[in-house]
Amino acid sequence: QVRLVESGGGLVQAGESLRLSCVASGRFFSINTMGWYRQAPGKQRELIATITSGRSTIYADSVKGRFTISRDNDKNTVYLQMDSLKPEDTAVYYCNAASVFLGGGRVLTNVWGQGTQVTVSS
């Protein structure tokens, strides 16, 4: 019913930029809060940024001032602009939809994409 697909990951050098995209497809009425998470080898998955349907945002301290989350509701897409990348940003980045409203009182929660690899070389 709902699928999240991330794209835009890759290999870059420290100081460079990447822009990640996450497209939600399927049959649904709306999605409230969406977020980006990342998980590095041997570490827990951590929250990077969230954005509400009203475009209110929250950022982790580690990326504040460097990353920008945005969304285009008409395109059902959330973006993560990643500037001034550091080697410690290397991780698999996952897109998340907190609540997907399907209609008829049905809701899906915590829908995840499959992730996209970001590797930053020093």
Class derived from helix and strand content: mainly beta
Q: Specify the helix fraction band.
A: under 10%
The number of distinct helices, counting runs of at least 4 residues, comes to 0
- Helix-strand pattern: EEEEEEEEEEEE
Using only C-alpha atoms, the radius of gyration works out to 14 Å
Instruction: Let me know the average pLDDT.
Output: 96
Task: Work out the number of β strands.
Answer: 12
Based on Cα principal axes, name the global outline: elongated
Tell me the span between the first and last alpha carbons: 41 Å
Low-confidence stretches: none
Beta-strand residue fraction: over 45%
Biggest sheet layout: 8 strands, mixed
Q: Describe it for me?
A:
The chain is an all-beta fold and 122 residues long. It is built from no helices and twelve strands. The strands form two sheets. Strands 2, 4, 5, 6, 7, 10, 11 and 12 form an eight-stranded mixed β-sheet that branches. A four-stranded antiparallel β-sheet has the order 1-3-9-8, with no helix packed on it. The radius of gyration is 14 Å and the shape is elongated. It starts with a strand and ends with a strand. The model has no long low-confidence stretch (mean pLDDT 96).
